[in-house]
Amino acid sequence: xxxxxxxxxxxxxxxxxxxxxxxxxxxxxxxxxxxxxxxxxxxxxxxxxxxxxxxxxxxxxxxxxxxxxxxxxxxxxxxxxxxxxxxxxxxxxxxxxxxxxxxxxxxxxxxxxxxxxxxxxxxxxxxxxxxxxxxxxxxxxxxxxxxxxxxxxxxxxxxxxxxxxxxxxxxxxxxxxxxxxxxxxxxxxxxxxxxxxxxxxxxxxxxxxxxxxxxxxxxxxxxxxxxxxxxxxxxxxxxxxxxxxxxxxxxxxxxxxxxxxxxxxxxxxxxxxxxxxxxxxxxxxxxxxxxxxxxxxxxxxxxxxxxxxxxxxxxxxxxxxxxxxxxxxxxxxxxxxxxxxxxxxxxxxxxxxxxxxxxxxxxxxxxxxxxxxxxxxxxxxxxxxxxxxxxxxxxx
Length: 396
Fold this sequence. Notes:
Oligomer: single chain
CATH topology of the largest domain: Rossmann fold
Structural class: alpha/beta
Radius of gyration: 24 Å
Strand content: 5-15%
Distance between the termini: 64 Å
């Protein structure tokens, strides 16, 4: 056994030394390798190590958020990544030197900085992406806000007899922030939190699998005259998806409409491409665009439990004609025994903020049928990590 483990260690060291640079590794290969490494780690670890991770993992986001507040990451970004002594760093950040040393010790122990001497620090690649004007930095802020809800999950279930939450206005979020408002309504009253949310959601578009129009035969199935509305992108944020669609089909006839809450639409700084109109819209109100050829939503309905999702779908149905089609582009929770940890975690995240869930393909089809739609086809896509599918539906 000892020889076998020694040989395995030697093999891994050799493989590590011959590993290609990260940018040359395909995502599929990367995830497959990480999966094997995860299995190896799970097989080798004594129980106390995963217990330690569960007990102490929350400190990472908290300490990084403190470092952001102190201005530590910004100081290194402004210095263009040069090493700094503790005294030099202290003169450029908030807080006293004693606290700064303790924060830097934690960040160095977690490979965000390298402590080169007792009193000097070198920023590693992660340190340079957590500044206050960066998307990774905004992700820390966004999930730090959400972590306040996570901390109240136990209290919520104790108060509610461990019943699965199904009301978007009585989720763990409302308990944590002592509000009766929906999460999105609450954010609209907190502009800094709304701005961070918009930043994170816009960036997340890049990691959500293939564009829907690359797996669906748009040109064969979605033809309209130039004066008709071709596509309404509901809950489309600041326009990432609809602009990508326009870029991919620059000459496709028909008008394009972007819809999201007014506080989101108002953050669009640059003019949208010609042919795209942006409208502030609350999706629980009557849909203002009637008879569009296609209505599209990407990771919108997963923010809502069935009650609110059905209400929203009814507003779309009222606006559709027999020629209209509805596209729901969503994560799909696996029915398999081996659910990816990130998928299971996102399911809890949807629950704590919205009383919602990550649905399986069968649950999505059942929801659409319950809403009175006929599901024409489910277009599954190959993706890394979280599985996704495009549900094509129409009036019965």
